[in-house]
């Protein structure tokens, strides 16, 4: 098991032992059983992260696990038994286009290695189902654009699995910034990394991951810089360091530092790495105050403080909260405070493309998002 996953799963298991606010209470719905619409979701790729999403779905009111897509018959057998999924709602990677005729499934959540997202999302859109796609949405901006267009043509929604966009302490900082409580934003720092284990895993394959740490964990600092600063960057500069070229082969980045410039004059300084642990920190500085999160993007509980004191909003399992909110977005057209649509995923891909370009050229790259 990759060390990050083990680390994050340990955190997650620990989080489950802490007092966790039930979604029913969160929704202010303690007496009446929920009777509104329910998003019926099929999970594609039954690996480590899908396991957490399935667990999250167990406590959702507005979303539930309704189908399975996997290339491993044994997983289909054990998962369908565990979650009570009928055989007619189970597919493999060859036949999942038939989901088009399945009236029991509204959306497919793609949780496979990064390089597979593009083709899988195109096929799901063609089958007429809404799509939730894990981050990074694709390998590059061209693929991301094609996915957006395919979903638009098919009149289905495309969302990206940005779970932090629904996390309470994160949202409190965004609220403070929007209310002007931090003043004019001047600086953001995003540190995102962990020490990766097994050299044979897909995350260290250029072909399946599309890159290295930046695609997998650095994207949290990229995405975070935008929702924390509240603007999209207009330039990027980047520098790469590689200490282990055996493990991190050509095209697989180990460590990249990057800087972003925002139209209002704020700058961001970020680090993305596969070779350091305990690196999950956001810091936002404005003329009137500051906000800090550490851990900022792990599975929680997220901890932080601002110039006004500790941030201590209750922990809700991220995957449960995300699925509950995404059901509202897909079924009731709700608008989240921080967008999670394909355009949002595409912006991050454009920044990733520009960071790799800046590493290659050694020059600042202009961005137009
Ligand atoms: P994983 O290796 O645990 O699971 C991947 C699954 O895809 C496995 O079940 C595997 O069998 C399946 N698969 C299908 N085709 C494959 C192929 N050709 N090669 C390898 N595996 C194949 O990975 P994961 O950690 O679950 O990550 C899956 C996706 O989820 C990635 O895009 C990753 O970035 C994303 N992710 C997101 C978060 C988050 O917090 N939002 C956390 C972890 C992973």
UniProtKB/TrEMBL annotation:
Keywords in alphabetical order: Oxidoreductase, Signal
Residues annotated as domain GFO/IDH/MocA-like oxidoreductase: 173-291
Domain Gfo/Idh/MocA-like oxidoreductase N-terminal: 39-162
The UniProt record lists the keyword rRNA-binding: no
Signal peptide: 1-27
Residue ranges crossing the lipid bilayer per the database entry: none
Protein name: Glucose-fructose oxidoreductase
Organism: Pedobacter yulinensis
């Amino acid at each position: 098991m990759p060390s990050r996953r083990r680390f994050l799963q340990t955190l997650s298991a620990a989080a489950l032992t802490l007092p966790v606010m039930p979604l029913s209470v969160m929704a202010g719905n303690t007496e009446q059983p929920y009777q509104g619409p329910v998003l019926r979701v099929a999970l594609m790729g039954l690996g480590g992260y899908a396991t957490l999403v399935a667990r999250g779905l167990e406590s959702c009111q507005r979303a539930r696990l309704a189908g399975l897509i996997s290339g491993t018959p044994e997983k289909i057998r054990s998962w369908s038994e565990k979650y009570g999924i009928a055989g007619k709602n189970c597919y493999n990677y060859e036949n999942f286009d038939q989901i088009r005729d399945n009236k029991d499934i509204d959306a497919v959540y793609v949780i496979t290695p990064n390089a597979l997202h593009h083709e899988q999302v195109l096929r799901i859109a063609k089958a007429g189902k809404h799509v939730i796609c894990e981050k990074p949405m694709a390998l590059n901006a061209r693929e991301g654009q094609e996915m957006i267009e395919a979903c638009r043509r098919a009149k289905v929604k495309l969302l990206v699995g940005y779970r932090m966009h629904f996390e309470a302490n994160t949202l409190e900082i965004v609220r403070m910034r929007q209310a002007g409580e931090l003043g004019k934003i001047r600086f953001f720092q995003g540190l995102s990394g962990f020490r990766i284990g097994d050299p044979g895993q897909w995350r260290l394959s250029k072909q399946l991951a599309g890159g290295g740490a930046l695609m997998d964990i650095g994207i949290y600092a990229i995405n975070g810089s935008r929702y924390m600063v509240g603007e999209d960057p207009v330039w990027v500069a980047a520098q790469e360091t590689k200490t282990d070229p055996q493990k991190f082969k050509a095209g697989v980045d180990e460590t990249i530092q990057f800087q972003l410039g925002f139209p209002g004059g704020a700058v961001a300084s970020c680090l993305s790495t596969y070779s350091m642990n305990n690196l999950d920190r956001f810091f936002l500085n404005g003329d009137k105050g500051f906000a800090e999160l550490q851990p900022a993007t792990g599975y929680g509980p997220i901890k932080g403080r601002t110039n006004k004191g500790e941030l201590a909003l209750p922990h809700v399992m991220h995957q449960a909260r995300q699925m509950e909110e995404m059901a509202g977005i897909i079924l009731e057209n709700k608008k989240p405070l921080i967008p999670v649509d394909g355009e949002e995923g595409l912006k991050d891909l454009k920044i990733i493309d520009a960071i790799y370009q800046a590493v290659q050229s050694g020059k600042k790259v202009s961005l137009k998002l």
